[in-house]
Amino acid sequence: MSISSSLFSGISGLSTHGNAMSVIGDNIANVNTIGFKSSRTTFQDVLAQSVATSAGTAQIGRGAALSAIDTLFQQGSFESTSNATDLAIGGNGFFIVSPRGSETEYYTRAGQFRFDADGYFVNPEGYVVKGWALDENGNDVGTLQDIRLSAFTSPPEATNTVTAITNLDSQETSHSASLFGAWNANDPTGTVIGDANYGYQTSIRVYDALGNSHDITIIYDKLNSAASGNEYDDGSVDIENSWEYIVTCNPADDLRPDFETADARGILMRGTLTYDAASGSLRSMSAFVHAGGDPSDPANWVPATSFSPDGYPEFTAQFVSGVDQTMAVRFGARSTDNTWTGAASIADIATDGLPTSSWEPQALTSTQYASSSTTVYQTQDGYGTGFLESISVSTDGVMVGHYSNGQILNLYRVGLAKFNNQQALFKVGGNLWSATRESGDAITGHPGENGLGRISPNSLEQSNVDIAAEFVKMITTQRGFQANSRIITTVDDMLQELINLKR
Question: Deepest in the core among 257, 260, 295, 368, taking most CB within 10 A?
Answer without folding.
Answer: 368
